[in-house]
């Protein structure tokens, strides 16, 4: 058997990038929109026969030419990508793969966390990683049933505040997860600070960072799913599968979400949660959106106003803490990102 080595691909090497796209397409995979590093394996004639990529602490777009399977290329490729991750300081790694491909990654040190039958398997390189995460939530568990919220708060609006208030008034205790993946226009530390400020008046609300087991739409990979609706449904089903275990650890029996009048993607996501969560004894409470001047308040609209240079117009839509942040020194970077973004609306 030939000795193969994985080599980095330069992002500006158009020939190599085209070869990778062609290989992925042959294996039924489309390039993911979030990639920070790619590597490939070539045969003696410089034909690309395997490729894989990274994004943050995940391995993505892994493919081996079907004519070269059984030659150990996936092991070589994954070993190279893991080494790069270790050099970057990322030791806890995740990957998403097709159900039929999952067995290939078990000998490479990956363990299944959850799956959506026939579509996706979510894996990590720590055998007991998810169990340890659930154990870390113990301080937020209670003896009585509680409720949960999941927020990105990009940025935090009166809509988020309304949802939080509703959950806090209707439940003895609430656990509010803030998505910690730093892929939003407003940085995570600032989103977290806004949420904490809003939750301060409530003595029954705990703020928890989501970690890697509450998956945002920004980082859920879709490269092996062709249809946009199927991507959303798969993301929602995987989220629900993981959340049921999180809810069990926290004695959570309700999850609150905002009604979605604008985004077809989020509306479909909520529909899937509403079907899957009750199967595990978790009620999904869909709360009508808070309104201002007869229009539903949304973070997308707030971002659009900032993007278009109308930051003063957001004042009726956000709490004082959010407005002070976005118009002050600490929010300058977030405002710059929003103004420079090509797209600020979540569809």
Compute the CA-based radius of gyration: 22 Å
Helix content: 25-40%
Number of strands: 14
Report strand %: 15-25%
What are the secondary-structure elements, in order, as H or E? EHEEEHEHEEHEHEHEHEHEEEHHH
Low-confidence stretches: none
Largest sheet composition = 7 strands, mixed
Strand order of the largest sheet: 1-2-3-4-5-7-6
Distance between the termini: 49 Å
Topology readout:
Elements: E1 6-9, H1 14-26, E2 37-42, E3 48-55, E4 58-64, H2 73-87, E5 94-97, H3 102-105, E6 111-116, E7 120-124, H4 129-136, E8 146-151, H5 158-170, E9 174-178, H6 188-199, E10 205-209, H7 228-250, E11 252-258, H8 264-276, E12 283-287, E13 291-292, E14 295-296, H9 299-307, H10 320-327, H11 332-340
Parallel strand pairs: 4-5, 8-9, 8-11, 9-10, 11-12
Antiparallel strand pairs: 1-2, 2-3, 3-4, 5-7, 6-7, 13-14
Helix pairs in contact: 7-8, 9-11
What does this structure look like?
By secondary structure, the protein is of the alpha/beta class. 37% of the residues lie in helices and 21% in strands. The chain has 11 helices and 14 strands. Strands 1-2-3-4-5-7-6 form a 7-stranded mixed β-sheet, with helices on both faces. It has a 5-stranded parallel β-sheet with strand order 10-9-8-11-12, with helices on both faces. A two-stranded antiparallel sheet has the order 13-14. β2 and β3 (48-55) form a beta hairpin. The N and C termini lie far apart (49 Å).
